[in-house]
Amino acid sequence: MTRYPRPIRSLSVFHLAASALAMGATLAAAGPAQASEPAAADAANDPGAITVTARKRSEDILKVPVTVTAMTAAALEQRGIVSITDLAGSTPGVNVNNSSSGHADRSFQQVVLRGFTPSTTLATTTSMFIDGVPVSSPSQVTSVSDPAQVDVVKGPQSAYYGRNTFAGAINVTTKEPKGEWAGTMTGMVGTRANYRLQGTVEGPIIGDMLTFRVTGERFSKNGSWRNAYDGSTLGDQKTTTGSALIVFKPSPKLTMKLFGMMSEDRDGAPAQTRLYGYDITTASGTKVAANQSNCTLNGNSRGVQGFGSTVSNAYICGTVPGLINPISANTVNTDAIKQFLALTSNRVIPTSDSVDGYGLLRKSQHAHTAVNYKISSDLTADFLAGYNREVWSTLIDLDGFDSSGFPSTTNPKGFYDFPYLVERRNLDWSMEGRLAYNHGPLRAVAGVSYLKADTWSGGGGGTGALTASLLVPGGKSENRTTGMFFGLTYDVLPNLSASIEGRYQIDTLGAYARSGGQTIASSAFIPAGTYAGNALLVQQTYKNFTPRAIINWQINPRTMVYASWAKGVNPAQFNTTILAQTASVQAAALAAGGQLTIAPEKITNYEIGMKGKALDGRLRYTAAAYYAQWRNQINAITIVAADPTTSTGFTFINTSANSGSVDLYGVELDTNWKVSDLVSIEAGGAMNGSDIKYFRSTTISQLTGIYDFSGKEMKYTSKYSANVGLVLGGELKNVADGKWFTRLDWNFKSGVWSNEANIAKTPDAHKFNLRAGVSKGRFAVDVFVNNLLNDKTYTSLTDNYVLDPSFAHSAYFSALLVGLPDLRTFGLQLKVKM
């Protein structure tokens, strides 16, 4: 049995907040006050300064009264951050959940910031941006090769970033060409067939007036885990990206940028497995998988208090154990699988864009333009426009084990198997125009924005013959968002500023019938009948105003404190998949609390913080404490309904409802200390707590018999997280233009719960990465070891089912789906500047 580190002790949020801010005050006192130095330092005169655009204008990260974690291109490269998972692992207070949809791959990656866990698969609480333009998914953010900077902005950011910035925003800034011919070539090779090839070229087209930058990248790796079924690797990933940026500066007052990017993710079957609450045994008595149950829960057959009967559910409680069963999945791409994926009926994406076997295929295109015009020395106009197209499909082995010991006369493989296809298509367009004014003590921003986002989802599978009738395509889901926003900052005193910000937002949601028409079998949600192809089924408009007020005080030139109050709104949702079900299934969904239209989620956030420098500027720090009230929370309700029309006899229905209320609170601290010319220490930590006030979930109550979730914590999020980076580096003696560095990073995440009942939890994760390199002039060589100590802690944990041929344990949760991490990997990287 694998042994795991013991969890750290709980600490009071008030004690942590006081400690963090007291530390900041101590550091502030260590720096002498110099009245002659201006309150707002010029970042250009500070070689260690980082500029961010959290409020749609350039500000020193130590002067902006918002909690921001920023990583420059140099920091990203030195830490080896190349994916959204790497970014989350290196940022306290951030988790990535990739198994909310029943499979642990890159298709549905949800960013969990400050514990704001999206409760449904398609929900988003943290939005992604490239140069301030929204993108469809986290994969597009990390597809930007060699970015200038990545900013993680924490707290509701509705005023400036708009919808889905409920918990915060992540913005990637692209590098601008400098107008001189330059380029880089980077090559990496490593164990597990890792390789990366990256190239950039930039230069002038017409002097400094018209310049360009082109990047290309290819990354591939084999998974770290062997499939006991056929010996293949699980977790293979391959990404190809290309981008181009053109900058036009016809005059000092006007700058126009045009950026375009294409990327493709082509992955194999995911690195995942299940921990079972029950044995899986063949008819002959052969045990295929052993249960790891250590508790029996007194659940409820209905999951509704006062109804149903008591049922006993074997489950895994407490800190989940290591693996005892072989990791296996039926992932051989047989002719029947290939023919199934070549079907053109009932699809929402073209077969040319479809995966051709087990795994994931995603194709993304992104383009945006940005125009900046300086009307006068005080007034600036900006215009942004963006376009995103993303199509993906993934074929998974839904049963998730080697089921070849169960003969079947109906399955084309000759034994029980449950292949399942999931596919999705996203299209969106966005525009934003704003004016910025800066004169004397007044700084102001005002603008309008528009976003039109369309989504089509579909898929299906089964245990028998794979035909088009198993596929259920969804109609279009449309969201049109119009926003009008403003920001006003006034220096009440030379060292005291007040800011008022806000956005008035109109969201219009629409759900449409499938292109081939749709028959609604029940009037449970909308009138029953036959609807023509692409006909509007339901539409709803929501109007909200989200304000924020900030006061910040520059105590001295080195120290700033701030306090803010903000409100945020997360857009509503539709449960359109319910409409495709039979009348009995729709009735079951309605009885379980399912709704077709769901109201928006709302948040009220209170925050205090301190930022500054100490020790003659060698130590930089930010500290913040927050308290947030999340109301009208949208939660998922999964229903397993009897359905004789399917080969399994069951239909899984995912619905959602406004059925939760939770308070979130925490403290965060980031420091960067240049101890000497040789030694630097980067350290950060976060405590992100949650306190559920009200929550309802029929599926969790069916499993646990728990109806009162008050005092419980949110799922999928680490309460404690920390990062420490020790960097040694300097000049190479007797080598002109020679440098060296060694960097050791420790990334810590405490365990995450699988559900709001807090029954099962992953162990704490401790990941160490080691990197060292030398450079001379145009050449640089790095060697690295990722996951130095080969930590095998699960990357995700979600409730799931034992899906054997009998389906005897599929009425209630009976297993835990776990994501498996990348194991220790060695690598060598060479970079050449041209």
UniProtKB/TrEMBL annotation:
The keyword Protease does not apply. One of its GO terms (cellular component) is cell outer membrane. Keywords: Cell outer membrane, Ion transport, Iron, Iron transport, Membrane, Receptor, Signal, TonB box, Transmembrane, Transmembrane beta strand, Transport. Residues 1-35 form the signal peptide. Its main location: membrane. GO terms for biological process: iron ion transport. It is found in: Cell outer membrane. Coiled coil: none annotated. It is a multi-pass membrane protein. SUPFAM superfamilies: Porins. It comes from the Bacteria. Residues 350-788 form the TonB-dependent receptor-like beta-barrel domain. Residues 62-169 form the TonB-dependent receptor plug domain. Belongs to the TonB-dependent receptor family. This is Iron complex outermembrane receptor protein. It comes from Novosphingobium sediminicola. The lineage of its organism: Bacteria, Pseudomonadati, Pseudomonadota, Alphaproteobacteria, Sphingomonadales.
